[in-house]
Design brief:
Largest sheet: 6 strands, mixed
Strand content: 15-25%
Structural class: alpha/beta
Number of domains: 1
Helix content: 25-40%
Distance between the termini: 31 Å
Number of strands: 6
CATH class: Alpha Beta
Order of helices and strands: EHEEEHEHHEHHHH
CATH superfamily: Pyruvate-ferredoxin oxidoreductase, PFOR, domain III
Shape: globular
């Protein structure tokens, strides 16, 4: 199998590192060679966080170059736009519609761009956008946005739900497991 590339992008504190750990665990359990690499800036201060997940028969580098991502999983709209050049021509962006103002917007030096989903689509991207924050809150915690996004991403994989649930069970503390399973289902079944 050719190497597949997934970028997980967001803002520090949103749970993108757990999402990449879950995805790596899931893909390893299916017999793939997997490389996961974290590249992040001021994650503790709300800065951009990027994780690369690459899998296939043999993966030699953890880094994804521009134009190579099969999927961009974005926790925030502006981050989806920021990393758009990394998406393959036939790639898919799975994004939360939540907007988190970066520092230039907070200080008044810039304005948050309007109509980003339309802009992404107009740039030729296939975009699957959903309000993950609302779905996470329905599951029981705003912190479950990451699992809602993974649930949505699972929609594009030919893997049974049990495989995803086993990765959740292996990586999520028991006291949060049922809430995370609900978040996964809400993301997967979003219409």
């Amino acid at each position: 199998m050719d190497t597949k590339n997934i970028m997980i992008v967001g803002v520090g504190g949103q749970g993108s590192l757990l999402a990449s750990k879950l995805l790596g665990h899931l893909l390893l359990s299916q017999g793939y060679d997997v490389k996961v690499s974290e590249v992040h800036g001021m994650s503790q201060r709300g800065g951009s966080v990027v994780t690369y997940v690459r899998y296939g028969d043999a993966v030699y580098s953890p880094v994804i170059d521009e134009g190579q991502a099969d999927f961009i999983v974005s926790f925030e709209l502006l981050e989806a736009a920021r990393w758009l050049p990394y998406l393959k021509k036939d790639g898919i962006i799975v994004t939360n519609t939540q907007q988190i103002d970066p520092m230039p917007v907070i200080t008044g030096a810039a304005e948050y761009p309007e109509n980003l989903v339309d802009s992404l689509k107009n740039a030729g991207a296939k975009v699957d956008a959903l309000d993950c924050l609302t779905l996470a809150e329905q599951a029981g915690s705003a912190k479950a946005v990451n699992i809602v996004l993974l649930g949505r991403l699972s929609h594009y994989f030919d893997l049974p739900d049990e495989v995803w649930m086993k990765s959740l069970e292996a990586n999520v503390p028991a006291k949060f497991l049922e809430m995370n399973k609900k978040a996964f289902e809400l993301g997967k079944n979003y219409k």
